[in-house]
């Protein structure tokens, strides 16, 4: 009906509720009055419309987060099960989620079952579940640690039943994670400037999908600082007179967007030569703390992303190099 819709931050409503009557009282009528007063004074934000592709990425990445939490939970429970029943298994397989460890848990999880087996039988069992399986050396080591195991020997049937359910949950989470990541990778090419952003060495499809899903169309931001403010990565300072408070990150924005910007920047610092040089220059020449340098590079990444999206230009490595290298 041609009525413009805006949003008011609930946190600001809570902060402004005492401006009306100088009390901490709260009611529906008072909330409505405070919200109307904030809109009248311009303390609101416009609703940013996004296309269907960005909305799909946001939903898919939210789904991925739920699956990853379930996967991590199942892995933690598998580790707990191993601690109780067969703690020596880590002497053979350092990672419980390795293919050899998972295959061992499926075939012969308890040390009691391994006591009456031969190394050849163990290797034959591994061949049924793995294309490239460990050899006889691993099988001998597994038998030796199983004979000296200090794991529990009570209620083994119940523990085996519990393990079957844990492995089912683990398999389901792995399958769902593969499916949702495949759907994310199929959706990314539909965004015009996504391919240009993926040309930056160190930017993965998942991290880019997380940023685009939460931020929406980057070409709609006027500057990289607007993206930082949207994520809650802009700076906040509390000072009065001669007293200078600590400058902190406001964190008034999308937490998932902050996380993916941070992870993308960490990947660039490890894999991208330009960002690696910038980080080294910040730490060694400018004597910055490492985390402060990372936060500064997040701002650099935000400006690069918004610039590429707005101008539809390819990534230029020479523009990112530190001034010391350009002068040389």
From TrEMBL:
Domain Transposase IS116/IS110/IS902 C-terminal residue range list: 195-279
UniProt GO molecular function: DNA binding; transposase activity
Occurrences of domain Transposase IS110-like N-terminal (ranges): 2-87
GO BP term, pick one: DNA transposition
Protein name: Transposase
Native species: Cytobacillus oceanisediminis
